[in-house]
Every structure is written in structure tokens, then in C-alpha cells.
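Incident log, support desk, overnight shift.

02:14 A customer reports that sequence design results differ from what the structure should imply. Their input is reproduced verbatim below. On-call engineer (initials T.W.) acknowledged and began investigating.
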């Protein structure tokens, strides 16, 4: 099964794409802060708070270039500067960073740098400074959150094996400091400078895998923000402020994660007090929160309440809570979040008795009401949408029809699916915006929505399997109508059906991500990707590095999409014959031989790629695949440089130039001279009855690489045409062929 989350720019969500590749949700979603924009890859991967800064990653590429200066990394994000400090000086530097987002690069710092930054002495110094700041925290600065984020990143890196485990000597003092914060009132004070402080503090508990230690604190936090009765205003009002709201979400997250912790024992499975506290929260706070910016807390707290129905010893006590919530809320009203949480609990924990609750197949009922538009664009594409006009329907259908034809041409699929692929048609689901996607997609389709959309390939070997792309409109671009990641994800469907044999797990059993994400970007963007060109010119990675891309890379966003685009474009422009060999192996599921083939390429093209990236532009269109490679080799000619009808001369090379010639008979038409393959950069010049040069010729083709084409609709009969192959860069292994009618 392919269940691939996408982040902000095609946005396959790096870590989740791998983790979720074989599974959809098996329980109601985790608590999370709500936002109107899809999360960035960084936010999703490291569980960071929504940013308040401009989201350059969500802008059209025409704006991305003009906004490049805004995207420059400030000095505070330079981890080499941070690493130049140690001990108390490092703690002081971290505490006084001017923006808590300055700490974010710590989550992806390279192993050697991170190991230095998280030495025992440094971690101890930061933990000590955190304890000091915690004791006096009053919600007026960002020192505490900066220190918390430093430690969060350290535990994150250690949990992934990037660096050694953080020194255990800090765990006890950190627990003391964190208990003091989570149990006190100061943590939840409205901090306008660093409103994420309370939420990040609770997340540190989860990064430390200390959830069980903080279960009583989490329950107390739920009680802290529970009104004494539904009709009396009280502490729930505080949840409308960012700081307290984030803290509440953090406490709920600790409860959520504790269910699966190995040291939880029977702390939750035998204790109904947690469900009781949560149920009191949703019943007493419904009036106060329902039509506010904090209404999502009711949904999340409902999910956590009903999650206790998974325990046999508590099920009988939780079931009435579920039933009462269904009876006192509606599927589509203002309190629909609570109703859907209760219905989801039945689905996951008591589905055999769904009729008792009246919620059997509620997902289908919900989908039919929410997704009001249903339209068959073609035999291979069905659209279901929440709120689109007929003109927008036609825009979607036309765009994908064009993309489908283009992909078949570029990939030379012959419109023949790989063996055992039953994904005969794609269902495209479009929600009105990210808010609606976040609310409904997880319920209807059982997916995580902490992403920019999701492509579900399913199991293509199963007859009747339904491939589906679940998307949303890019509401932030209105009045321009755009479905976020539309063309990129449609390429994934086509690539999976016509190129990649087997399911997602098989196709990614070896490093194929450079191709999977690169071809999605390349066919959807064509040459219009200046940010990727700029990135490749940085020389941060070699082409051979990108060939090793996976879905678990720390620098996933850039490596998968920007660098993957450039790697794919380079191979399509300069080494199409290699691409054809790769596709031939993909299509029969011979991923082992593909891996051998890529290992054989190794670093061979690294220098060529770097030089090519320096010269790459956004001008023009990608070269269409040649048919010259399929022509037979010219033979029986009077001269080895003579191009006969419908044949090719191979293995041409030169450091300067070389010449070929041809003559066509009377009545010949539509002469096409093509070149492809090899390495270097060759341009083609043609002249009648004379040898052409770069300054004197009749027709020329001067694309980047060796894919050149010259066409003559009505050629001169029985006269000599001379062809100069000019080495813009030394070339070798080039094939040149001629066809005509």
C-alpha cells in the first residue's frame, strides 16, 4: 500500500511517508493545534508549533524567486555559531536567541555537529539554566522556550540514533523543573513574546519519553481548565489565549502517547478518573468554547475521553459517555467535532455494535453530504469535491488530461500499465480548504491530516482497488483557483501505474525517492523551478548523494523535491538512455538490478551535474524523448558518416566538432534529424550543399545536453545536406539518426 503524506511543496511528509506507507490510522487522531495553512515539512516532522512568519513554501514559484531574500537563513540559525560556545556560555547563548525559531535547525543538525552541541557538559548546563528560568518564569520572555527547544531537539536527535543518548544525569532535575512548570499557573500565562512556551514544555516531556511520569500533571491540567458547571464562566476562557491553548494540547498529547508507552502498566487501563476528568471538561466547557477559536479543544478532549474505551475494564463506563455525546451533538452542526469523535470511537473500539449507537457507515453518509460534487473527468479520473464551480471542475479535468498525455509522452509508457496493476482510475477528492481537509479527511478516509494532502495507492494487485488522492484547495492563493499539489500527485499516480511495479513498499525497498519525487516535480513544473536551480548551484550535495535519497532524510524537503527535481531533470536531459534502462527495470519490478545499475553509475556524473546546474535556466521546455535510440544502426553505406533512411550512427564523440551528411530522394518529406544519449553537450547545425558552422547554417538545434532535433518538412531532393556536431562541451557516446517519409 502507498499511503504517502505530502508536506508544503508536494509535500510528501518526510518521516511519515515512510512510517505510514503501509497503514492508515488505527485510532482517532492525536491532539493538535489547528491552523488554516498546511503544516511545513519541518513543523510536521519535528512537531513544532505553527509559524507566524510568511510561508514562502506555499507561494507560487513566481513569488518564491522575488521573496528569496526573505528566505535567507539568519545568523541565529547558523548552528556552527552555536557550536562555538560551550557549557554555561552555550546555555546563555541559547537562552538569549532573538527568536525561538532560531533553534529549529538543531532538529536536523548533521551528526558530527549535533554530537558536539549535545555534549554532556552542554546538556547539563542547559538543563541547569532551564531549572533557573523555570523557577522565575512569568510569561514575559522567550528564554524558557529557547532552552526547552534545545533539549527537545537533542532528545529527538538521540531517539533517531543520530547522536548518543543524552546524559541521564539531567533527567531527574529536568523532571523536577518540568513538574514545577506543568503544575503551576505561570506556564499558562499569556506570553505574547513566546506563545508556544507552554506547548513546547509539554512536548519536551514526550521527547524525553516521560509521559507516564507526567500523567497526574496532565490530568490536573485538564481539571485546571474545566469550568465548574456548563452555565458558569470559568477557567476555560483562558484556552482562547495561545499560551494556555498550546499547553492544553500538550497535556492531551501526553495522555495520548502514554497509552502506548512500555512503562505505562495499568496506570491508564484500570483508572477511570482520566476519562471522567476529560468527560467533565467537554460537558462543562461546551457552552464556553463551542463557537470560539478554542472549539477544537472540545474535539481533542472528546477523542482522548473516548480513547479509554479501548480497555475492557473501562469500556462499560466509557460507552455511556460516547452515547450521550452522540445524543447531544450532531454530525454537521457546530458541535460536529464532538459527534465525529464519538462516532470514530465506536468505529475503532466497538464497531461490531455500531447499530446500538446509530453510526454504522457514518463515514459514507458524511462524505455524501460534505463532498457535494461528483464528476467523471474521464474513464481514468473521477472527481469528488466539497465546493467547486462547474468552471473549476472543467479546469481540474483539463489540467489533468493535459498532464496525463504529457506524462505518457515523456515517460514513453505506451499507455500500458505494469503487470498486476488494477488501479484503473484515480479518485481525486478536493476539500474546500486546509481547515475542512483537516476536519473531515481523517474521519472519512482514516488518514493523518498533519500534511498538505495524501495519495493512497492501496494495493494495486487487488482487483477493484481504488487509488485516491485526497487534497484541498490552496485557499491562501484566492481568488486564483488552485488545488494544492494537484499535478505533482497526479504524476505519482501515473508513475505508480505505468512505471513502478508493485506496491509502495516494494518500490521503495531500494533508494528510488530521487525518481519518485523528482519526476513528480519535473513533469508538473517542467523547467520553471528557479529555487531548485539555485539550490543545486550551492554544491551542498553531489548527484550521487541524491541518488541515495530516502523518505527518512533529515533534509528531506530540499533533497527530495528541489534536488530530486534537478537530478531527474539532469538525467532526462543528459542521460535519457540511462533513464530508459531505469524505467525498464522498474516496470518489471527488478529493483535489485536497478540498484546495481545505479551503483555502477556511482559518481560518474557528479562533475557533469555540477557544471550542468551552473548553466541550467528556466527557459524553454523539457526535451521530448527521442525515438532515435530505437532506430537500427546504419549499415551498408558508402561512408561511415553517411546517414541513411530511418537509421542511426552511434558512439559519436568529439572535443571540437564532427561532421555527418545525408541526401534524400525525390518525393521525400518530413525529414527529422535527431540526436540523443552520451555525455557532454553537443549542438547540431545543418546546411544545404555546404558545411555549416556556428555562425553560418540553415537550421540549428542548441538545447542543453545532447537531445537535439532538426526537422525539414519539404527537403531539397537529391542534394547534399551537411551536419555539424559542435562540441559546446566535449561529448561522447552520442547517437544521431534520421527518419523521413
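02:41 Re-run completed on a clean worker. Output:
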Amino acid at each position: 500500500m502507498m499511503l504517502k503524506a505530502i508536506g508544503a511543496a508536494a509535500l510528501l511528509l518526510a518521516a511519515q511517508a515512510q512510517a505510514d506507507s503501509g497503514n492508515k490510522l488505527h485510532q482517532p487522531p492525536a491532539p493538535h493545534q489547528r491552523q488554516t495553512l498546511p503544516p511545513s515539512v519541518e513543523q510536521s516532522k519535528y512537531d513544532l508549533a505553527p509559524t507566524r512568519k510568511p510561508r514562502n513554501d506555499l507561494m507560487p514559484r513566481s513569488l518564491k524567486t522575488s521573496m528569496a531574500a526573505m528566505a535567507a537563513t539568519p545568523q541565529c540559525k547558523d548552528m556552527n555559531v552555536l557550536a562555538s560556545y560551550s557549557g554555561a556560555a552555550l546555555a546563555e547563548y541559547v537562552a538569549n536567541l532573538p527568536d525561538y525559531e532560531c533553534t529549529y535547525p538543531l532538529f536536523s543538525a548533521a551528526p558530527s555537529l549535533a554530537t558536539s552541541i549535545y555534549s554532556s557538559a552542554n546538556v547539563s548546563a542547559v538543563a541547569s539554566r532551564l531549572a533557573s528560568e523555570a523557577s522565575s518564569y512569568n510569561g514575559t520572555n522567550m528564554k524558557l522556550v529557547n532552552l526547552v527547544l534545545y533539549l527537545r531537539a537533542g532528545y529527538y536527535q538521540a531517539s533517531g540514533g543520530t547522536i548518543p543518548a543524552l546524559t541521564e544525569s539531567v533527567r531527574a532535575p529536568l523532571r523536577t523543573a518540568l513538574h514545577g512548570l506543568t503544575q503551576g499557573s505561570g506556564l499558562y500565562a499569556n506570553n505574547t513574546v513566546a506563545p508556544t512556551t507552554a506547548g513546547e514544555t509539554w512536548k519536551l516531556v514526550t521527547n524525553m519519553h516521560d509521559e507516564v511520569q507526567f500523567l497526574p500533571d496532565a490530568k490536573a491540567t485538564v481539571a485546571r481548565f474545566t469550568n465548574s458547571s456548563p452555565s458558569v464562566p470559568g477557567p476555560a476562557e483562558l484556552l482562547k489565549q495561545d499560551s494556555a491553548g498550546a499547553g492544553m494540547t500538550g497535556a492531551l498529547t501526553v495522555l495520548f502517547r502514554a497509552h502506548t508507552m512500555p512503562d505505562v502498566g495499568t496506570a491508564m487501563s484500570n483508572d477511570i478518573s482520566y476519562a471522567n476528568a476529560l468527560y467533565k471538561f467537554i460537558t462543562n466547557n461546551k457552552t464556553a468554547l463551542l463557537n470560539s477559536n478554542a472549539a477544537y479543544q472540545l474535539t481533542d478532549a472528546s477523542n482522548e475521553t473516548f480513547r479509554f474505551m479501548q480497555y475492557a475494564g473501562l469500556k462499560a463506563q466509557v460507552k455511556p459517555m460516547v452515547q450521550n455525546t452522540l445524543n447531544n451533538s450532531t454530525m454537521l452542526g457546530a458541535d460536529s467535532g464532538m459527534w465525529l469523535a464519538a462516532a470514530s470511537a465506536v468505529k475503532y473500539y466497538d464497531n461490531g455494535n455500531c447499530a446500538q449507537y446509530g453510526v454504522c457507515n457514518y463515514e459514507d453518509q458524511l462524505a455524501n453530504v460534505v463532498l457535494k460534487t461528483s464528476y467523471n473527468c474521464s474513464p481514468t479520473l473521477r472527481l469528488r469535491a466539497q465546493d467547486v464551480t462547474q468552471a473549476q471542475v472543467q479546469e481540474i479535468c483539463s489540467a489533468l488530461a493535459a498532464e496525463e498525455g504529457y506524462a505518457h509522452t515523456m515517460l514513453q509508457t505506451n499507455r500500458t500499465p505494469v503487470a498486476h496493476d488494477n488501479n484503473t482510475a484515480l479518485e481525486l477528492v478536493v476539500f474546500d480548504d486546509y481547515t475542512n481537509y483537516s476536519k473531515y479527511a481523517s474521519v472519512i478516509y482514516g488518514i493523518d491530516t498533519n500534511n498538505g494532502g495524501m495519495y493512497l495507492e492501496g494495493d494495486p494487485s487487488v482487483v477493484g482497488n481504488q487509488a485516491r488522492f485526497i487534497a484541498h484547495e490552496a485557499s491562501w492563493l484566492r481568488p486564483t483557483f488552485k488545488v494544492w499539489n494537484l499535478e505533482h500527485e497526479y504524476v505519482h499516480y501515473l508513475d505508480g501505474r505505468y512505471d513502478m511495479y508493485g506496491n509502495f513498499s516494494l518500490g521503495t525497498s531500494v533508494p528510488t525517492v530521487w525518481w519518485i519525487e523528482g519526476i513528480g516535480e519535473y513533469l508538473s513544473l517542467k523547467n520553471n523551478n528557479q529555487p531548485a536551480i539555485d539550490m543545486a548551484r550551492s554544491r551542498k550535495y553531489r548527484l550521487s548523494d541524491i541518488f541515495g535519497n530516502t523518505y527518512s532524510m533529515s533534509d528531506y524537503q530540499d533533497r527530495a523535491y528541489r534536488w530530486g527535481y534537478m537530478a531527474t531533470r539532469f538525467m532526462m536531459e543528459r542521460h535519457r538512455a540511462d533513464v530508459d534502462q531505469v524505467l525498464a527495470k522498474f516496470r518489471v519490478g527488478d529493483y535489485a538490478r536497478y540498484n546495481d545499475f545505479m551503483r555502477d553509475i556511482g559518481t560518474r556524473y557528479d562533475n557533469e551535474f555540477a557544471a550542468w546546474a551552473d548553466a541550467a535556466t528556466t527557459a524553454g521546455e523539457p526535451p521530448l524523448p527521442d525515438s532515435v535510440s530505437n532506430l537500427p544502426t546504419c549499415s551498408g553505406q558508402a561512408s561511415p558518416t553517411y546517414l541513411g533512411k530511418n537509421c542511426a550512427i552511434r558512439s559519436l564523440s568529439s572535443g571540437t566538432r564532427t561532421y555527418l551528411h545525408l541526401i534524400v530522394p525525390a518525393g521525400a518529406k518530413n525529414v527529422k534529424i535527431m540526436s540523443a544519449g552520451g555525455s557532454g553537450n553537443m549542438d547540431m547545425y545543418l546546411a544545404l550543399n555546404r558545411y555549416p558552422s556556428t555562425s553560418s547554417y540553415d537550421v540549428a538545434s542548441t538545447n542543453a545536453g545532447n537531445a537535439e532535433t532538426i526537422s525539414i518538412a519539404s527537403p531539397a531532393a537529391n542534394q547534399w545536406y551537411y551536419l555539424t556536431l559542435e562540441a559546446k562541451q566535449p561529448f561522447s557516446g552520442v547517437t544521431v539518426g534520421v527518419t523521413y517519409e
